[in-house]
Amino acid sequence: MKRTKIVDLVNTTDYNREVCVKGWVRTRRGNKNVAFVALNDGSIVHSIQVVVDIAQFGEEFLKPITTGACIAVNGLLVESQGQGQTAEIQAKEIEIYGTADPAVYPLQKKGHSLEFLREIAYLRPRTNTFGAIFRIRHHVAFAIHEYFNKQGFFYFHTPLITGSDAEGAGSMFQVTTLDVANPPKTEDGKIDYSQDFFGHSTNLTVSGQLEGELGAMALGGIYTFGPTFRAENSNTPRHLAEFWMIEPEIAFIDINDNMDLAEDFLKYVISYALKHCKDDIEFLNKMYDNELLDRLNFVINNEFVRLTYTEGVEILEKSGKKFEYPVYWGADLQSEHERYLVEDHFKRPVILTDYPKEIKSFYMKQNEDGKTVRGMDVLFPKIGEIIGGSEREADYDKLLNRVQELNMSLDSLWWYMDTRKFGTAPHAGFGLGFERLILFITGMQNIRDVIPFPRTPKNAEF
Ligand code: 4AD
Ligand code: MG
Prior knowledge:
- There is one protein chain.
- The protein is about 30% helix and about 25% strand.
- It has 13 helices and 16 strands.
- Strands 6-10-11-16-15-14-13-12 form an 8-stranded mixed β-sheet, sandwiched between helices. It has a 5-stranded mixed barrel with strand order 1-2-3-5-4.
- Strand 1 and strand 2 form a beta hairpin.
- The chain is elongated and about 85 Å long.
- The mean pLDDT is about 95.
């Protein structure tokens, strides 16, 4: 018999028909005569109740049907008499695919801490919480593709292995096939990368932006959506060493259009999640954060506030609040500052623009004042920075100036510089941290809980 997914059964009223379901046992309870098995197949947060007549199957046969076991059930779908569910299944045939010995299976019925579940990340997708989070992740990824596709932007695939440092921040993972214990050396004692796989030194990308700009300068509007890698030693609830980033890049737009796009885009995907992940978001709202739904609705229904970094710093200075990190013009804002502006001062998402050039990347368009650049950060409640972007410096000489000021290597950037020589154009774009968005949409507190297998300092298990 063909398998039916539980998502297609829990909301049906088409009862009294035979169905086949397959899934993992969440709980089993009952008495001498009848067992109630809650079965979940990951298609929806709800489990379906399977009612098993013990005499029919025999106690011995049913013994291994414990939490975590995988079974297939053929039976009659009937209207449930019990509370909290509509349909249930009266089992006619049961096949046991795999048992999960209660003496060793780590994911027993009792509530586990999120910290413990991180240690068993290979099993945690089987919990209601992580099932909900990873289904939301899927739907949001889909919404992102849908949004840009509707805008006529092309999904542009940028390389993961590169020879350049896109953010100029130097926190890169090296990629090499050289023998690290005994690398070949040049005459002056340096590592001889000409003997490395690519003939020069390479690293995992920290951003697809630079290559994305080349795409925009040919296709008009593109977006990337892929993994990025940062070897920052940031052990915070908002940083991963491997995270997914979405980077649209668009020709012929300025920073104001870029802000409009960022705001419209975020509202679109959050609305999409509210519509398509209702059960899962309601579950998380109930279990973890009862302000989650309100917060999501608030963000889609209110305009983001836009102000300059300079204005933002003035507000922070005048706030009279004691921050852990001091604020002054020129300081890189910390998440405590960002959250003060968003949560305490404006009480809505904020887009800060025109940052001091010293704290932003080399490629941002330089303002007339000689001090600031046309960067923009979108700041969200609970998260702080969720998007970072800018209008790009389209002028060859100004860009070259900045590259030289920062002592960056033209050897690895010559092709990027060439775009400003050959048919340069005003353009802008931004990067959205996918996991930060999922943090916001799920109401989770720690970024390690919104990606299936988090990579953080000293942790790359599974
Ligand atoms: O602000 P960032 O560093 O900007 C860029 O990489 C630009 N190239 C984007 C662009 O203009 N195309 O990173 C963009 C976003 C941040 O706002 C944040 O949401 C996320 O990426 N992010 C991280 N997320 C998780 N872990 C980390 N270590 C992150 N670093 C940045
Ligand atoms: Mg940033």
